[in-house]
Amino acid sequence: MKQSNLYIPTLREVPSDAEAIxxxxxxxxxxxxxxxxxxxxxxxxxxxxxRKVETIIRxxxxxxxxxxxxxxxxxPSELWEESGRWxxxxxxxxxxxxxxxxxxxxxxxxxxxxxxLLRDEVKSYKRLPMVLYQIQAKxxxxxxxxxxxxxxxxxxxxDAYSFDIDPEGLDRNYDAIYGAYMNVFNRCGLNFRAVIADxxxxxxxxxxxFMVLADIGEDTIAYSDESDFAANVEMAPVKVEYxxxxxxxxxxxxxxxxxxxxxxxxxxxxNVTPQNCIKSLLWMIDEKPVLVLxxxxxxxxxxxxxxxxxxxxxxxxxxxxxxxxVGCEVGYIGPVDVPDEVKVIADHAxxxxxxxxxxxxxxxxxxxxxxxxxxxxxxxxxxxxxxxEGDPSPDGKGTIVFARGxxxxxxxxxxxxxxxxxxxxxxxxxxxxxxITMGSYGIGVSRIMAAVVEQMHDDNGIVxxxxxxxxxxxxxxxxxxxxxxxxxxxxLYAQLKRxxxxxxxxxxxxxxxxxxxxxxxxxxxxxxxVGKRAEEGIVELKNRQTGEKAxxxxxxxxxxxxxx
Length: 564
Ligand code: ATP
Ligand code: MG
Hints:
By secondary structure, the chain is an alpha+beta fold. Helices cover 25% and strands 29% of the residues.
């Protein structure tokens, strides 16, 4: 394509509303334009990148035998009422009425529509397994649309749905799609982790999120520096072998600690470490008081409390509730002599504290030399704390580090959630009717484009990986008014095209500086610069990523690009 004809409106200034670097660069380099908050047009360069992402996804999905469909964005409310989500989805679901006052939603996701599509036609187990997918605009009225393509209100998603007769079949499809997703994100050149995201069963295998490591990410992930273990910080199990310090158990004493309430203040005042303190907080768990203990330097994870007690509602007790049940204010409470109605549970680390410090359930007072089992009893010990950087990885390999992540994909075992609600049944081998077992799988297609830019850019602009670059080569004629340069430029353009390279040819009558600045901003991996030595058939080749430049004869260009 000749750049003189192509619509690439580059900007020198950073748009004032763009916080994320990917948002700034994609607007400045002329890939996208905002229409209203969270809604974007893809300009020619943006459309080309999007198409490359889509092609990679199609190849990988087709490769595992799944089939592409295209469902409507406009969905009747009745389907959402059948699943119950018309009421539970909330204001994110965009709703509208037609001229007959019939209610519709714009698809935020397509579980309902696809279930209705299959239930009337697929009646026998012989038709399964099956995986259907589509690539399409999704609508979600996000509370905070931001960061450009990272969180839009209209965005492109690839969604897929699997259909099986039993959970074993679902496991097979899930694994196949998981594998396809790994290939997709690897081919997009992303540094990512597949993260355990299950909130129900700790460390379960029923849902994974694919997280691109980037500071702008909204989630924190804990991953091993040596293995492929990665989990959402809320979900990561803690597996540490604690040891008791080898010292004689001393007699418990009550000490006055003035108005010191926080662990660090108390520890400093009593000249002990936070590791030697027992942090005690009262929680109301399904309306019953539970005292939860952790080591002073650890944080309790309420999701883990919820799982440990199989509870519905987990909240911290109010000051009044704390006074009512343990007779004292937060800051001085502890596990010694708590009333029978208060259950006491503790994180594993607490069991290994020797001669520790805890609140005495009296204003301004703490105990020293407190020992679990001797001075207080615990209903049970469990893994109740957040994992921390420096903890051993739960798979036994390496050490945990934290990073921020952008979710680019999500795989999820639905089971019979939708098929039961919507009567999508099949007959199994024995002629028995049962609900179809389903899975749901999403990739943020437009979000990938932004995530790639978050990871691949420098001070001058975007640095596209070869697999997603809008063009293979950026051919730049420094001075098209010079006949030799113009002729060589045209000849090279024709030659590269003949050899099936997709070339952006900067034939504009702009100053050289403008062209170089634009080229770096746009970020095509190779620049071929036709300049002063055109007469000798010598051009300059620049690698956008490394910045390396080399003079080459035009006969050498293709070989150079092929091996780079
Ligand atoms: P998030 O937690 O970021 O809101 P989600 O859990 O709601 O995402 P899913 O329902 O799993 O997302 O959708 C599948 C994929 O679609 C996500 O993994 C993400 O890549 C993409 N996606 C979701 N919401 C948006 C959005 N508002 N803008 C762009 N992409 C999105
Ligand atoms: Mg998700």
